[in-house]
Specification:
The protein is of the alpha+beta class and 169 residues long. It has two domains: 3-72, no CATH class; 80-169, no CATH class. Helices cover 40% and strands 16% of the residues. The protein is built from five helices and three strands; from the N terminus they run ααααβββα. Strands 1-2-3 form a three-stranded antiparallel beta sheet, with helices on one face. Strand 1 (112-121) and strand 2 (124-133) form a beta hairpin. The longest helix is centred in the first third of the chain and has 19 residues, at 21-39. The radius of gyration is 29 Å and the shape is elongated.
């Protein structure tokens, strides 16, 4: 950093009157955003804060409100209850990684993998499970339901083992 720039920066730190107009305006906006946010029980998000500031006669862009809120470390309340689909119990033993994260098969039915995913709908969560043969990547089985699908994955695996037969080695 060149010395003149450094000394100009230090002078602005000590004397706020030397700040650029944009920096002065943003400092005022930060105080107003904080005031409106606290006056509304700390629940307003960027959109409502932006609308309230414009109602009060402050011409400000919504993206500016979002940026300054992030800088101030404030955020609005989100609707709906938080839902955790996975609750890990660290005291339990975790299954061993039998393939060492090497998802490679030399023949069909040598290695299967299962993937369970979920998505939110108007009526709650919906779960989607796939069982895939790693060799040629076809989907061996798929199930969509509103309940957890872990038992379905095990049942599907058991059905396939009975159909194909156990291979030695």
């Amino acid at each position: 950093m060149p010395p003149p720039t450094y000394y100009e920066y230090k002078a602005r730190e000590q004397n706020p009157d030397k700040l650029q107009d944009q920096s002065k305006r943003e400092r005022k906006l930060e105080k107003e955003i904080q005031r409106v946010w606290e006056a509304n029980l700390r629940v307003y998000g960027a959109r409502k804060l932006w609308r309230q500031l414009n109602r009060e006669g402050m011409d400000v862009a919504r993206c500016t409100v979002e940026r300054l809120m992030q800088k101030l470390g404030i955020r609005g309340i989100t609707r709906g209850a938080k839902c955790w689909t996975t609750q890990t119990d660290e005291s339990l033993l975790h299954p061993a990684d039998l393939v060492s994260r090497q998802f490679v098969a030399r023949r069909p039915n040598q290695l299967w993998v299962a993937d369970i995913t979920y998505g939110m709908t108007w009526k709650g969560f919906v779960y989607d499970a796939f069982v895939t043969d790693v060799f040629s990547r076809p989907i061996v089985g798929r199930q969509v339901t509103a309940r957890s699908l872990l038992t379905w994955c095990w049942r599907r695996w058991g059905e396939h083992c009975g159909r194909v037969g156990r291979r030695k080695g």
